[in-house]
Each structure stands twice: as structure tokens, then as C-alpha cells.
């Protein structure tokens, strides 16, 4: 009897990790967070359970994000997190180790790629194939990347914004901008602290971003949307509450949004004229969780003058592309 290994795809993001198993579909979507005991450094929780502990743990427990700006900042915890999710996905008892496809940012160095590969091998992989995030996102968005014509992908994740011009199955020019969804959250935290003397955490900032965040100013006749935010006063340390609106948050997010647009412009500057003409005709494809910020597509379009198309499933574009890459494997290989 021939036993084949499971094929696993992993979108290892700064903010979240998605796991695909061939024949089962996407089996996990969890925050990329690990809670550890600070005394013996052992993990006690992963994913959403660990994220709920952020800002609420006693001194002997801390919640850590083992990736920063798309790069592994804590190899040990990344390996443990990968092993945890691989074990959960296929079970600890298998006849053969799994083959793993895992994505990395567009401008990931060879050393960083090696760190990702080593983490996957140490977590139990039999073989590891690394794919750049823009290529995976393009596959997931049903873009034919093998054609001899240019397609631009802008993937706004949690830690990085990957911009790439793709033609004939490869990245012709690309950039990884160290500004993305997490920076939107931090900008909101900084704004509330500086303008309202209110201290809030990552989860509250993310909730504000989702509810009233915007990348473009209010239009003529458009009414402001308000939100009551609770936190702690930076002046007296007591619990506090402030009323803010979406125009305030537009101002807070103006700088990180502008940095992303500058990064897109720089990639255009390095794009061959023929491919740039293709992109002008087809538009820019926008993927990733950060692309869901209200008006992000319009903000890019206004500055660059090229139509921006947000794909149908921006949050899952990368993992869906990884799934397509896995389906190219020969069964029983």
C-alpha cells in the first residue's frame, strides 16, 4: 500500500496565519500570536486565544507576534507556531511528513527565505516550496500570470505591502513596503494619545479602523460618522472615553496611506514601458486585508491615475493562490 503525505499551504503573515490542506480546504485562520510563560518560555496558547491575552496578561505571561513586517523576528516561536498548526491540520500521527508551500514577501532576502524554510522543516515538513506573496495573490485572484503582458499586484497585508509587476510567470520588478495594516492601527493609537490623551490597545485601534477608518477625505455633503472610544487617560491614568469621527481617522491614516502610494509609484518608475502600458490598460489589482480600508482603492487611483481593482476575496487571495500551486503537484509524488 502506498501512503502519500498531506500537502499543506501556509500563508504566514505578520497579523494572521492561514492554513490550507489538500482535500480539506482552508482549515485554519488565526492571528499570528503566541502566548508564552515568561518563566520557562513555553507556549501556552496560539492564535485567537493568545490574541485575547494581549494587554490582559499577568507578569508571568506575555503574548508575542513572532513575525514583524513580514520577517521572522523570533525563529523559535515561529517554528513552534508552525508545528502547532501543522499538527492540528493533519494530526500528529502520519505515515509521511507533509509537503509545504509557504509564502514570503516580494523582497525577502535569501537569508530570510532560508529562515522560513528552516522553520517549516523543523516544524515537520518533508519538502518546502517558497512562493512570493504577489505571485500567490495573483494566482488567487485568477490572473493569468504566464502571459507575456504586465499585471501589477498590490497586496496590503498586516506587516508589509507587497507591490509587484508580473509577466511570464515571474516578478519583473517588485518592492516590499514596511507599511501596512498594523501601521494603520499604530497611527490610530498615536493619534488618540496625542490629540485626545487617550491610551488604547491594538484591538481597540483595529476596531476603530474597521468601523470608521478611511483613506480618502469626506466628500461634499457626506456626513461624518462618529464612534465612542474607551481607554485610559494619559493625563490621570483613569478610565476615559472620547467621541471621535471618521474625518479624524482619515487624518491619522493619511501618512501611512501616503507611504504605500509612494512605494507603488517607485515600482512604476522601474517598470518597462511596454508592461506599464499593459497595466494602464488593465488596471492595478488590490489584495490583502489592508486593502479593505475604506477608499484605499480610490486613494491609489487618485494619485497614480490608473484604475484600481479590488479583487473579489482580498483576504484569502494569497492562500487561494497557494492552493492553486499545490494543485499543480503530482499526486503521490
Verbal overview:
- It is a single chain.
- The chain is an alpha+beta fold and 333 residues long.
- The protein is built from 10 helices and 18 strands.
- The protein has helices at 47-51, 75-90, 110-122, 133-140, 181-196, 202-212, 246-269, 273-282, 296-304, 317-326; strands at 7-12, 16-21, 25-31, 34-37, 43-46, 61-64, 67-68, 71-72, 99-104, 127-132, 151-156, 161-167, 170-177, 198-199, 226-233, 239-245, 284-287, 308-310.
- The mean pLDDT is 90.
Overall 3D form: flat
Report the major sheet: 5 strands, mixed
Order of helices and strands: EEEEEHEEEHEHEHEEEHEHEEHHEHEH
CATH architecture of the largest domain: 2-Layer Sandwich
Short description:
By secondary structure, this protein is an alpha+beta fold. Helices cover 37% and strands 28% of the residues. It is built from ten helices and 18 strands.
Walk me through the topology.
Elements: E1 7-12, E2 16-21, E3 25-31, E4 34-37, E5 43-46, H1 47-51, E6 61-64, E7 67-68, E8 71-72, H2 75-90, E9 99-104, H3 110-122, E10 127-132, H4 133-140, E11 151-156, E12 161-167, E13 170-177, H5 181-196, E14 198-199, H6 202-212, E15 226-233, E16 239-245, H7 246-269, H8 273-282, E17 284-287, H9 296-304, E18 308-310, H10 317-326
Parallel strand pairs: 1-9, 9-10, 11-17, 17-18
Antiparallel strand pairs: 1-2, 2-3, 4-5, 4-6, 7-8, 11-12, 12-13, 14-15, 15-16
Helix pairs in contact: 2-3, 4-10, 5-6, 5-7
Amino acid at each position: 500500500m502506498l501512503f502519500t503525505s498531506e500537502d499543506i499551504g501556509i500563508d504566514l503573515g505578520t497579523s494572521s496565519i492561514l492554513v490550507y490542506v489538500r482535500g480539506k480546504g482552508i482549515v485554519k485562520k488565526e492571528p499570528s500570536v503566541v502566548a508564552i510563560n515568561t518563566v520557562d518560555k513555553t507556549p501556552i496558547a496560539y492564535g485567537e486565544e493568545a490574541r485575547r491575552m494581549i494587554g490582559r496578561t499577568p507578569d508571568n505571561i506575555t503574548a508575542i507576534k513572532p513575525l514583524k513586517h513580514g520577517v521572522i523576528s523570533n525563529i523559535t516561536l515561529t517554528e513552534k507556531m508552525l508545528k502547532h498548526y501543522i499538527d492540528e491540520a493533519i494530526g500528529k500521527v502520519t505515515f509521511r511528513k507533509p509537503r509545504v508551500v509557504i509564502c514570503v514577501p516580494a523582497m525577502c532576502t535569501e537569508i530570510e527565505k532560508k529562515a522560513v524554510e528552516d522553520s517549516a522543516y523543523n516544524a515537520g515538513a518533508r519538502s518546502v516550496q517558497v512562493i512570493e506573496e504577489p505571485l500567490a495573490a495573483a494566482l488567487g485572484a485568477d490572473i493569468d500570470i504566464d502571459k507575456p503582458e504586465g499585471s501589477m499586484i498590490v497586496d496590503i497585508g498586516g506587516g508589509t505591502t507587497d507591490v509587484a509587476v508580473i509577466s511570464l510567470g515571474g516578478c519583473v520588478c517588485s518592492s516590499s513596503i514596511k507599511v501596512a495594516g498594523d501601521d494603520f492601527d499604530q497611527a490610530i493609537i498615536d493619534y488618540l494619545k496625542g490629540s485626545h490623551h487617550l491610551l488604547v490597545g491594538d484591538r481597540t485601534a483595529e476596531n476603530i479602523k474597521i468601523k470608521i477608518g478611511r483613506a480618502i477625505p469626506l466628500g461634499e455633503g457626506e456626513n461624518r460618522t462618529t464612534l465612542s472610544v474607551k481607554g485610559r487617560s494619559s493625563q490621570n491614568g483613569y478610565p476615559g472615553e472620547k467621541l471621535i469621527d471618521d474625518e479624524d481617522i482619515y487624518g491619522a491614516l493619511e501618512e501611512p496611506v501616503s507611504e504605500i502610494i509612494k512605494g507603488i509609484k517607485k515600482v512604476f518608475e522601474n517598470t518597462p514601458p511596454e508592461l506599464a502600458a499593459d497595466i494602464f490598460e488593465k488596471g492595478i489589482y488590490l489584495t490583502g486585508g489592508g486593502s479593505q480600508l475604506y477608499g484605499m482603492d480610490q486613494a491609489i487611483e487618485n494619485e497614480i491615475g490608473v484604475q484600481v481593482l479590488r479583487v473579489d476575496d482580498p483576504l484569502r487571495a494569497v492562500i487561494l493562490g497557494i492552493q492553486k500551486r499545490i494543485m499543480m503537484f503530482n499526486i503521490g509524488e
